[in-house]
Specification:
By secondary structure, the protein is mainly alpha-helical. Helix content is 52%, strand content 0%.
């Protein structure tokens, strides 16, 4: 994954993420509860109902992250082999921005719209080659350039002048 629930919570306010992901009324999951769950902490201090609610909210957060990663891959795969390993910091940030956007559904703010549009612009720039991730197409660290030369490798030719008596 390009980002985790813990990454999303660290980048944005845990209470905000919990509020957007907990769709129950009244809300049962706080930012602190979600932060504990996202980092694999001990949830036994909570009731079974609260634990179930936290698991549901965490699943929604992880689904938003998966949707965001799929969106990132859709753009980046035109230039790089996906999934990217290691994950460039810009990709982790964009994934978090897009996941947050997906959590808001129909209650988007102007700030979220701007961040979403900016993330898509960066992804389009990566896809078009205007912006490099600093890795080669296999996702590894930047390799030295061959100066634009193409190297073709394959098995020895079956039909060649030397094997056909110069007839080709």
């Amino acid at each position: 994954m390009y980002a985790t629930a813990a990454d999303l919570i660290a980048r944005f306010d845990p209470e905000e993420i919990a509020q957007r992901a907990d769709r129950s009324l009244p809300r049962r999951v706080t930012g602190a509860m979600l932060a504990v769950a996202a980092t694999g902490g001990d949830l036994t201090v909570y009731t079974p109902e609260e634990q179930a609610a936290v698991a549901g909210v965490l699943a929604r957060v992880e689904q938003a992250i998966e949707e965001a990663q799929s969106e990132v891959d859709g753009y980046v795969a035109t230039r790089y082999q996906t999934p990217l390993k290691p994950v460039p910091l810009v990709i982790a940030r964009l994934t978090c921005d897009l996941a947050r956007y997906h959590l808001y559904d129909d209650q988007l703010t102007e700030v979220l719209e701007k961040r979403h549009n900016a993330a898509l612009t960066v992804l389009r720039d990566i896809a078009s080659g205007k912006l490099s991730l600093g890795t080669d197409a296999s996702g590894d660290s930047a390799a030295p350039s061959a100066g634009g030369l193409v190297e073709v490798a394959g098995p020895e030719r079956l039909f060649a002048r030397r094997t056909q008596g110069g007839m080709l």
